[in-house]
Amino acid sequence: MAKILIAEDERDIRDLIEFTLKYAGHEVVKCSNGAEAVEMAPQAKPHLILMDVRMPRMTGYEACRALKNIEEVKNIPIVFLSAKGQQSEMDTGLDAGAYDYILKPFAPDQLTKRISEILVKFGIDDK
Amino acid sequence: MSAITIENDLVHYEVLGRGRPVILIHGWLGSWRYWVPAMQQLSMKYRTYALDLWGFGDSGKDPRRYNFDSQVMLLDQFMEKLGITKAALIGHDLGAAVSIGYAAKHPDRVPRLLAVSPPLFRMAPRSIPLTNNPAPLPSPASAPTPERLATGSIPAIAGSVVDDLQAEIEAEAETMPFRSEEMKARIRAALERRQAEKAAAVPEANAPKTPDAATSAPKSPREAAIPPVDDQPTGPMVAVTLPPAGTPADVPAVPKPGPASDGQVQQANPLREHLQITDPTVLLERHVAAGADQEKLKAEVVKADRVSIAVSVDSFANVDTLRDLRSLPMPIVTLYGTNDTFLPEPDAAMLAMLKEGRTTFHSLGIEGARHFPMLENIADFTRLLLDFLEVSDVTKLEIKKIWERRVR
Q: Cβ B39–A12 below 8 Å, yes or no?
């Protein structure tokens, strides 16, 4: 199982993701904006970062670019959570260094399945 | 993980979402975890709580709290501690009975109640009239405890009524409308076996016991507290012994609940056959079709203290869930899996009795589901749950096969 950092400013969604990932057996650390994610990641050293696009203080894109410039965390896969209707922003996110997108709203089991696939691709044990 | 202390012991619960409170209560084969998909779906509109009852999951395992009344008390104290003044209750088998028991005591605190596969039997040794003014529950002091189980005081008490009731039971075996021929034959065989055992009891008691493979291994203190099958507290019908575990087809379901009327002699506790004799993980395999989630369920089932299951089943002898259910004033829905072989849907006569004169009761079956509809048919179950929590008239509820998006 993996350690996953969640950066999401909406509490209900953050709680739901945390609950879902914990139920799937993952360890979860969480924060509520991009700036906190940049601060926390080097210490928490997660296997994967799940990040909302639109957050206060520092957006997901800005945080992603910042994380890709930090040596010890630059190889951690970053997955954006983006609301439907923001698909046009996908390219911006991928240009910023994100590995993938998950569209909101998502079914909890779809989230865990997708996370699991990404972890396997990155050679992280998901057993 | 969230936990509170009640009576100096840990009660584990999880909470998700914001909104009106909904409390989900698990049954004999599991813990809070099998509500996870329901909690995820409800969390956008409701604050959902799922707790582990005493002896289950990660809650305290003090055998003094395993009887049914203590589980009802746990729910009461849980709500009190968390400041929940009112909550819709969703319970599954044991959890359904606990919800019904709580609602009977505090109808003003339960705006609506969904009972999933509730054990609707009238199991007290003497009939309790079905009225709208339920008699007070028997004192918790009379409920079985592990100590009483271990010391055999329960069998002694039960034995005092065995002879009294034997003739009635024999008559019941012939006349109870919901008993299958196979069940009748097994009851007769068990009664004959009991007679033979009684006759042989004295010489056997003096004979030295030879340990066999099953009993020679040292027992852990926890295992030692569980009376062996032959020493299980015996109500009138407990002498019915199941054959060794085999395929699911080998094991009959708990008898289908039939109609009960005032003054009728109540049947013995049929749950004993399943829950006290058969290993819970084996039972789980027989009664769930939850696919990949079965492993997660199994991990939770093994956490349960078997003494807790045994005591709660035994204390059911003092509980009349059917009477309580009939007396409740709030909107109530009972829900069954149509393929449930563990606690099957009540027959038409019982449902008619429950519906009689009421506009707040409804019963539904989820097609193809077995004992765990919340895991076996997540989509249908959660749609129903959302509708159940919203509608003003529960009798209009139905299982929706296709999601009907409401346009405002």
A: no
Determine the number of helices (DSSP H) and then strands (DSSP E) in chain A: 5, 5
Among B123, B102, B316, B345, residue whose Cα is nearest residue B236:
B123
User: For each of chain B's 408 residues, which pLDDT tens digit applies?
Assistant: 789 999 999 999 999 999 999 999 999 988 998 899 999 999 989 999 999 999 999 999 999 999 999 999 999 999 999 999 999 999 999 999 999 999 999 999 999 999 999 988 654 443 333 333 333 333 444 444 444 444 444 333 333 333 443 444 444 443 333 444 555 565 566 566 656 665 665 554 444 444 444 444 333 333 333 334 333 333 333 322 323 333 333 444 555 554 444 444 345 566 776 776 677 787 777 777 756 567 777 888 888 888 888 888 888 877 888 889 999 999 999 999 998 888 888 888 888 889 988 899 999 999 888 888 998 888 899 999 999 999 999 999 988 765 545 544
* Interchain contact, B36 vs A12, CB within 8 Å: no
Helix (H, G, I), strand (E, B) or coil at B117: coil
Pairs of CB atoms within 8 A across A/B: 24
Partner-chain contact A12 B18, CB within 8 Å: yes
Asked if B258 and B96 count as a contact pair (C-beta separation under 8 A), the reply is no
- The minimum CA-CA distance between B40 and chain A, rounded to whole Å, is 7
Residue B404: DSSP 8-state: -
Backbone angles phi, psi at B362, to 5 degrees: -150, 150
Distance of residue B3 Cα from the nearest chain A Cα, in angstroms: 15
Candidates B265, B268, B257, B264; CA nearest to B235 is B268
Q: What distances in angstroms separate CA A59 from CA A17, A48, A72, A82, one per listed residue?
A: 19, 18, 21, 12
Using a CB–CB cutoff of 8 Å, tell me whether B17 touches chain A. yes
pTM of the model as a whole? 0.70
B299 contacts chain A (CB < 8 A): no
Chain B residues with CB under 8 Å of A16 CB are: 16-17, 40, 43-44
Q: What whole-number distance in Å separates Cα of residue B108 and Cα of residue B191?
A: 45
